[in-house]
Design goal:
10 helices; 256 residues; alpha/beta; four-stranded mixed β-sheet
């Protein structure tokens, strides 16, 4: 069976890391399969993506027990392993929701942080395992986590490597919701469908605009806002959605 499974429910694609015996640790085969999943997610008919893990783990990070893949030059370099995945997630003009069902450690934690939204099971754990093996954060963790948590909190957490429970992750703002294990995927699916049903390109362009704003000044952001708003206005379905909102407002006014 594939180490990464994909399933589609209308406009929502669910990507499931599928190496439960290793807590979905990332080996060469899994990384190649995951790249194919991001390619599938880029289909314009897909409007939201859910990423999760099978079994007890979300993703334990690098599979330290896996043999080096010497048949593919550079497979062990970060540029060829993790970097394409976080860049692919960021490039998707659609929301990516991490449904964290269990341990998210090392590069698996970075993968969850690279998502646009995170929902956690009560059984989830978040472990920055980098310093424990003498490494700096990889897979973009040093980019995403300070933006989510602030510099001081992110640095302390990454440097000490302490484990966060789902409740602590919620208190820190790392995740937006914590739900019982059996409700995790249904809740993530409902949210994904809600976002997918938003008319036009507004949700995807909002993702792009917020990312731009984190890396540019106000004047540059306002220029980008103008450009993206023009794209949003011209998107199919946008005028119909506006007319529906105006109709509801008119009806509410008449009722009063």
């Amino acid at each position: 069976m594939s180490t990464v499974l994909t399933s589609r429910d209308g406009p929502v694609l669910t990507v499931t890391l599928n190496r439960p015996r290793s807590l979905n640790a990332l080996d060469a085969e899994t990384l190649y399969a995951l790249a194919e999943a991001w390619h599938e997610a880029a289909d314009p008919e897909i409007r939201a993506v859910v990423v999760t893990g099978s079994g007890r783990g979300f993703c334990a990070g690098a599979d330290l027990r896996a043999p080096a893949d010497r048949s593919r030059p550079g497979i062990n370099g970060l540029r060829h392993t993790y970097h394409p995945h976080v860049l692919a997630m960021a490039a998707l003009e659609k929301p990516v929701i991490a449904a964290v069902n269990g341990a998210a450690a090392g590069a698996g934690l970075s993968l969850a942080a690279a998502a646009d939204l995170r929902i956690a099971s009560e059984e989830a754990k978040f472990v920055p395992a980098f310093t424990a093996v003498g490494l700096v954060p990889d897979a973009g963790g040093a980019y995403f986590l300070p933006r989510l948590l602030g510099y001081a909190r992110a640095y302390e957490w990454l440097a000490t490597g302490r484990r966060l429970t789902a409740a602590e992750a919620l208190a820190w703002g790392l995740v937006s919701e914590v739900v019982p294990a059996g409700e995790l995927l249904p809740r993530a699916a409902r949210l994904a469908h809600q976002l997918a049903a938003t008319p036009g390109r507004a949700v995807g362009l909002t993702k792009r605009l917020l990312d731009y704003g984190l890396n540019h000044g106000l004047a540059e952001l306002l220029d980008e806002e103008t450009r993206l708003q023009a794209l949003a206005v011209a998107a199919p379905g946008r005028m119909r959605a506006r007319a529906e909102v105006v109709g509801r407002l008119s009806a509410d006014k008449e009722d009063r």
